[in-house]
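Per your request, structure below.
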């Protein structure tokens, strides 16, 4: 496994390989878990070479303390990637990706970026797209792999690729979950045992909604809000949306064209999840 900390050396290394091999790319912020490793495995299956980036992007954090407390485990991450047969790791310094300072590029993603995560995390998608665009320009992957847990981000990356007029194919990978149903997340490491148990109610609410879809969107939203209140989970939003545009809906569309998206806080730790139906 090759490890690079500067884009110039990575670009030079990749240059002769692009002519012969397909390149898969998995962007991460480290603190790797089985969800990330699922992305690596998918890349290994679909591409000749797999590159994983480990970079905690400072511009994606609205809260400085959230950035400071974000879990970091580089040595453990590298061991996991080696065991999962990742070929290349790109672990740059901030100055390597942002040589002119940490500037966020302004994108026009339209209404898709104004709801849910876009509404509650100002400039988040511009910050995410800025660093992803940088990665795509440096690595020039054949395929890039993103998890469905960050469903709105996934849809925005697809728009980004179109705007870049890039040939990168975006591959979505289903959410990996704990036995309790809790979506795998780096932030789960920040939860206490009792909070982890409490967090499983998020997925229970999502599966209830899927099973009782016939009760209608209004009634299901009421149910989720009430359950979160009972469990003392601070609900930030619950939205039923059309997947393609991530806009709230009042009636269900065709199968697999809808999603229920949730963001909630447990002991100050922000968790997101969704279910497709």
């Amino acid at each position: 496994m090759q490890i690079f900390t500067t884009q110039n050396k990575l670009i030079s290394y990749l240059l002769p390989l692009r002519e012969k091999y397909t390149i898969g790319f998995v962007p991460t912020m480290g603190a790797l878990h089985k969800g990330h490793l699922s992305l690596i495995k998918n890349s290994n299956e679909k591409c000749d070479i797999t590159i994983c980036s480990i970079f905690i992007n400072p511009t994606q954090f609205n809260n400085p303390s959230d950035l400071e407390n974000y879990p970091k485990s580089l040595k453990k991450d590298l061991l996991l990637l080696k065991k999962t047969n990742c070929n290349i790791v790109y672990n740059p310094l901030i100055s390597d990706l942002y040589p002119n300072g940490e500037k966020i590029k302004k994108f026009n993603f339209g209404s898709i970026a104004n709801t849910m995560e876009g509404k509650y995390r100002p400039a988040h998608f511009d910050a995410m797209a800025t660093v992803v665009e940088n990665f795509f320009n440096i690595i020039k992957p054949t395929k890039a792999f993103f998890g469905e847990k960050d469903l709105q981000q996934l849809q925005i990356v697809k728009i980004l690729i179109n705007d870049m007029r890039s040939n990168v194919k975006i591959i979505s990978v289903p959410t990996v979950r704990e036995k309790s149903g809790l979506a795998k997340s780096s932030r789960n490491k920040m939860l206490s045992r009792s909070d982890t148990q409490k967090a499983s109610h998020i997925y229970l609410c999502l599966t209830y909604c899927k099973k009782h879809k016939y009760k209608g969107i209004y009634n299901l939203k009421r149910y989720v809000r009430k359950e979160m209140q009972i469990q003392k989970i601070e609900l930030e939003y619950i939205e039923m949306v059309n997947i393609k545009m991530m806009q709230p809906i009042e009636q269900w569309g065709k199968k697999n064209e809808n999603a229920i998206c949730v963001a909630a806080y447990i002991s100050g730790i922000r968790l997101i999840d969704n279910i497709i139906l």
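The two ends are 39 Å apart (CA to CA).

Regards,
D.
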